Amino acid sequence: xxxxxxxxxxxxxxxxxxxxxxxxxxxxxxxxxxxxxxxxxxxxxxxxxxxxxxxxxxxxxxxxxxxxxxxxxxxxxxxxxxxxxxxxxxxxxxxxxxxxxxxxxxxxxxxxxxxxxxxxxxxxxxxxxxxxxxxxxxxxxxxxxxxxxxxxxxxxxxxxxxxxxxxxxxxxxxxxxxxxxxxxxxxxxxxxxxxxxxxxxxxxxxxxxxxxxxxxxxxxxxxxxxxxxxxxxxxxxxxxxxxxxxxxxxxxxxxxxxxxxxxxxxxxxxxxxxxxxxxxxxxxxxxxxxxxxxx
Length: 295
Fold this sequence. Notes:
- The chain has 295 residues and is mainly beta.
- It is built from two helices and 23 strands.
- Strands 3, 6, 7, 8, 9, 11, 12 and 15 form an eight-stranded antiparallel sheet that branches.
């Protein structure tokens, strides 16, 4: 039975106070491609996947973030852009669905640099030619933002505002997020970039997808992640290994998909599931939340 997420911990209750601000109209290297979508995070040091920081900026991946340094432009302002598949390889094409992936969002640790933020995506047409979809997202600001309780900021673009983003599955070759025109030399950190079906899903993910600092140091490890064979294991810390362990698996929209309490007799628990490919949130003992990728 599916049911909506109920928060049982004071930290989650606090995070539910996340504020969402809608504007009137309105970089990266570690996020992995999950299946044919963009959902993922920067969890492995020095792993860049198909993302890169270009247009003069430079970046590293460490501590669960993309750490980007902007460089000066010809207009005496600073820039550091995020690209997916900058090398333009067809093998890295991704599929976005006009219903399931109607929004693209990027989460900055703290606030993003001042200046412009723009989006453009290079689409592969049915005839195999490449065209840029960008008319709706080059105004210099996103379509909306979410501010979390700890001051991190999520900016999102409504992809369906572009007249060509319609009709079901669409194939894209490259994605370009322009972060530019900062007036002082600066750097920024990105927690994740992901696609969502609606703004409610963004807010749910902002609440559940806690920043690394908020997740605490429970010492509980989940592996393998990605999960490929309908199971994952939990390596417990010394304190947890003598207690019963409650496991809840949620969709990104906050729907409970699986809940089970395990009678704990060892430091490792194997959790079986039959989840389709995608990204999920695993909550352990109503406290620790981590992302699970199923391939």
